[in-house]
Amino acid sequence: MDLTTIWPLFGLELRTPRLVLRPTRDDDFPGLVDAAVAGVHDPAVMPFSAPWTDQDPQTLARELARWHWSHRAGTRPEDWTIIFTVLRDGVPIGAQDVSAKNFPVIREVSSGSWLTRSVHGRGLGKEMRAAVLSFAFDHLGATQAVSAAAEWNASSLGVSRALGYVDDGIQPVEARAGEVTMHQRVRLTADAFVRPPWRLDTSGVAAARSFLGL
């Protein structure tokens, strides 16, 4: 029995013209930590609802692994999160997640992501989000997707709007202790998805669907 038989999500892979997305394995952690420690955003602002990038490198490394392990261990058909390591030319450059609760009934997914700062501005954030949206809509049967970003985060909101999301309300988020940032929620229906000019290539989808109770 091999590892993908034990944990079928490890056999899942999404491929775009420039990227490979695969559920994070433990041997991806060193590359992911290097990508995060190299910088994810301007240190003067905090784009995340949890300020994980403020930690010292050793703590960041341990908490990144703990976060991935906790979501992996908590995966159930009724509540799941798949965190993909995003690779370009075989090197981890960030992470893209997709998650859902009570998916067989609600058919809604949410997503979040980060990219090492050195590759910002190349359209890779849009490409990796389009990959998980294509996966969710075309292979899992999702009918809608939601996300959110700080109101000042024009790049993240620009990706959302370019893919067809529409605004879905504002919510206050404590990003750093005592610092409140207003986040813009966005929502996308399957019919409104602005598809990329390429077609997603996949492997391991049937086993992943079965594992998620679909």
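the 2nd protein, sequnce then structure:
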Amino acid sequence: MATKKTSKHVKTKSAKKKMRKADIILIVGCIILAIPFLILGWFLVSASLDTGKPIIGDRYENNLDPAITKAQMEEIETKVASLSGVEKATVDMPTATLRVNVDISDTATKEEALAMASEAYNVVISVLDENTYFSQSNGMKMYDCEVHVYNVPDGSETENFVYVIQLKTSNMETATQQVVSEPVDAELAQQLRDDLEKKNNPQPTEESGDITVGSGEVEETPATSEAAE
């Protein structure tokens, strides 16, 4: 009798152990299956909370060292504005580019604008060393410099309009000048202007007594009307 009870007790304990193992396996399996859904849910909730917020990054992190200060920019602006022939000068810093805008006399020539661009650039590098601020070293990104010189602000339609840019990027060895008010290919530029003029102001064409107006509309001339009668 005692043997039967012991055997039954052992079987009961063995069954309980199997049930516990099955429960543990089931719980672990549920957790493993739930992990991807929890991660996906977190991404969805995080993205929903960040909707409408700008993503701000700094592509110049650990670069632009030493930094150009506001005091240095103000010094450059004051010195350039005091140059002979300058009517107005401003200095700003869009996207790691030191930009100097120089407004000179309306009657200034291309040669005078080129000379002024060089003079203004020399002022810049007298305050900010060219090799330190406008040249790459050890793979570090540094500033670019642009000097814009023009005789008529927003005067591209003016006959004597002159616009010169002197540029020095951090990966250039020396600064270069370009007269942007003059097309590189004058013949091509004129052809493009003529094509645009024809497109904006189509000329009527006369054929067999009819005048084509606009796109496909035909207007009868007096001679055509009389013949029809």
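The chain has six helices and eight strands. The first strand starts at residue 86 and ends at 92.
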